[in-house]
Amino acid sequence: MEIFDPGEIRDLTIPNRGVFRPVRTRFVDDGRPTTELAAHLAARAAGGAGLVVGPAQMLVHPSASGAAFLDAYDESAVSGLTDVVDAVHDHDARIFGQLTHTGAESRGDWEMQPQLAPSASPSDAAYEMPKTMTRADIDDVLDGFATAAKNLDAAGFDGVELAAGPFSVLRQFLSPRYNARDDAYGGDWDDRARFVNEALATVSEQSSGPVGLHLSLAELEYGGYEYGDVPDILDAVEGFDYLSCTVGTRATYNQTHAGISASAPDLLDPITTAAEHVDTPVIGRLPFTTIDDADALFDAGVDFVSFTRQLLADAETLSKAAADSRYDRCIQCNQKCLEAVYGHAHGGHVECVVDPRTGRETELYALSEAEPAALPQRILVVGGGPAGLRFAAVAADRGHDVTLREASDSLGGQLNLAAQGPLEPFGRAVEDLEAAVHEAGVTVELEAPVSADDVGPEWDSVVVATGASRPDTSALGFEGDVVDAFDVLESARGAGGPPDLDLGADVLLVDDNRWVITVQTGLALLDHAESVEMVSRDHYPAFRTEQPNLPGFVAALQAQGATFTGNHALDAVDAAGTVTLRNTLTGETTTRRPDSVVVVGRRQADERLYLELDERRDDVYRVGDAVSPRKLDRAYYDGEVLARRL
Question: Residue 385 maps to which CATH number?
C-alpha cells in the first residue's frame, strides 16, 4: 500500500490516502464559515490531500459553546458550508465534515447556558461544573446531530465524522472520568457507548455518505479510560464506516499537542490494536506525521494517513512528495498553529511560523503560482539569518539575481544558537532555508561582512537582514559581574559546556526575557550546576512561552531541580556578588549570595548598516530582527512579503 494509491471508504473512492485532518482555525464569523476557511482548506486539497476532514468540530446544538466553532445545526450556515465544499471539490479532493458537542470541555458563558455533560464532572481545562444531562437533553442533542448532518448533506459534504476525541461529549459518555451515571447511559461499556451508538445511527440516517468516528484511544487523564480499554470500547461501539484515531482530551492537549517541550504519546501500538478490532478503514497518525511515517502506519493497519501540522507548514507536502521534491518541514514550535487558536494570540486564527501563507490564503497566493518579477533586479542581501534566507530564496525564484553575504562562516543566524536543547527541531528550519536558497540559485558568500562603503551602484536594491545584537550586561549598571544568557548557550553549544564560564555550583538565573530562551538557559545550567534559582517578574519563568509548550518546560526544569521565585526583580548585584531581589507586589527586598548571576535579557535591532545606507540611497530595505527583534514567524513573514512585492 502506498500513500498515493487511491482508497475507499464504504462506496466512496478517495484519490489518495493522504488526509488533512480537522484543525481548529477560528475562521468563523458568528457561527458561520468565512471565505478564509474555504481558502485554507482548499489550499490543502490543492496541495495533494485526497481527503480533507473539516471544518473542525462543528457544533450540533446551541448548548455547546465556543466562539471558534461553527453552528452546523443552523440552516443559515449551509450556504457558507457549500462554498467550503465547492472550494475543496475544485481540486478533485473529498471532504468530510466533523460534528461535535463540546460537553464539559468548553465554557457555558458564550451562549449563557450551562454545560451539558454525562455527569457533574468538570473538566480540568474548563472547570465549570456541568449539568448532568437528562433524557430530554440527550434527545435534544441527538436531534441536533440529525439536523447538523442534514445540513452537511445539503451543503454537499461527501461524508460526516463524529468527534469522540477532545472537545466531545461523545467521548465523555465513554469515559469513567466524566460518566458516573447509573441509568441506561452509564455503567459498563455497552451502556456508556449507548449515546455514541445512537448518535452514529442518527447521523447515518441523514447522511448519504460515509459516517466515521474520530476516537481518542486514551484520555491520558487520571480516572479516564486507557489504551488497554480500546478493545472493550470498540466492541461496544457500532455503526461507523471508518475509524479515525487520536488521543487525549482538552485537559491534556499539552501532552497530545506536545511540540518542543515534551514527547508526544506514541500512537503506533494503540493504532495497531484498534485496527485489529475493526473491520472498517482506519485513519491514523503519529505525532507530527510526515511522509516518512506512512509506511509504519500502514504496517500498523491503517488505510489512510492523516496529517495536521505538516500540512500547515507546507500545504503542498503531498504533491511535492509525489513529485519527489523537497518540502518545508514542521519545526514543532506550536507558536502559531496552536497558540494563535487556543491562546487567541497573533490575530486569533491558525497560522504557521515557517509558511507565512498559512492562515493568509486569501491574501497571499501560493509560491508555486508566483509570477516572475516584472522588472528583474540585481539584489544584495546582507545577513544569512532566517529573514535574509527567506527573502533571497523567494526573490530568486521570481527571477531576481540575488547575492547573499553573511559575515560568519555559516548560514542560519540566531537559529543556529536557538536550535539546541528543547529547540533542537528548529534545526530543520535552518536546513530547509539553506536548501531553498541553493535550489533558487542564490549566490551565497560566507565570511563576507558588509559595510556601507562596500555597497556600490551596481546593486538595484539592498536588503538588510543583519538581525539583532545580544544584550549588553555591562549596561545594566550592577557593580558585580553578571553573565549574559547568550554566552551560556554559546558555551553549551560547544564541546565544553557552561563550566567553561566558571559559573560555580550555585547559579541565580534572572528572567528578563519571559520566553523560551529562559528555559533553554535554565536547562543548560542544570546540566552542570548543583543549584539553579530562576527569578522572574511573572509568577514563574518564561511566562510568555506558548501555553501548549509551557507545562512541559516547567516540568522539565522542576524535574532537574530548578527552583522558581516569581514576582521578583533584580535590583542590585554588589561588588562582592551579593544579589538584592525586590518583590514586585509588596516592594520588600531580600538578598542572595550565589556563585554567579545569569541574566536572560532582550536583544536590540542591529540597524547600523540600514540607517547608514538609508542616508545614501532609496532602494534599501530591512527585514526581520534588523527591524525589531521578534519571534521567528516575523522573520519568515518579513522576508517573504518583501520578496513577493519587489
Answer: 3.40.50.720
* 366 falls within a domain: no
262 Cβ partners below 8 Å, 6+ apart?
254, 255, 551, 552, 555, 556
Looking at this protein, which amino acid is placed at residue 602? Answer: R
DSSP SS3 for 162: strand
Distance between CA atoms of residues 463 and 155, nearest Å: 48
- Give the chain's residues under pLDDT 70: 67, 108-111, 342-347, 495-500
Backbone angles phi, psi at 38, to 5 degrees: -60, -45
A 10 A CB-CB count for 75 gives 12
Between helix 386-397 and helix 632-645 the angle, nearest 10°, is 30
- In the chain, count of helices (H) and strands (E)? 21, 30
Residue at grid coordinates 447522511:
207
* Selection from 194, 224, 198, 221 nearest residue 211 by Cα: 198
Three-state helix/strand/coil letters over 348-360: CCCCCCCCCCCCC
If asked whether residues 43 and 189 sit together in one domain, one would say yes
Q: What is the CATH number of the domain that holds 553?
A: 3.50.50.60
* pTM of full prediction above 0.90: yes
Query: Residue 216: what residue type?
Result: S
**Residue 96's closest CA among 56, 143, 148?**
56
Residue range of the domain that includes 219:
7-342
Query: How is residue 374 written as a grid cell?
Result: 516584472
The phi-psi region of residue 116 (left if phi > 0; otherwise alpha if psi is between -120 and 50; otherwise beta) is: beta
Would 365 be classed as within a structural domain? no
Residues 161 and 145 in one domain: yes
φ, ψ at 207 (rounded to 5°): -105, 135
pLDDT at position 499 is: 53
CA proximity to 319, closest of 44, 627, 633: 44
Nearest C-alpha neighbor of 315 from the set 42, 101, 630: 42
Q: Where are the beta strands (DSSP E) in 261-316?
A: 282-284, 304-307
User: Judging by DSSP bridges, how do beta strands 18-20 and 51-53 pair with one another?
Assistant: parallel
Farthest-apart Cα atoms in the chain, separation = 83
Q: Does 390 lie in the same domain as 282?
A: no
CATH of the domain at 260: 3.20.20.70
CA distance 45 to 414: 35
Question: What pLDDT score was predicted for residue 495?
Answer: 46
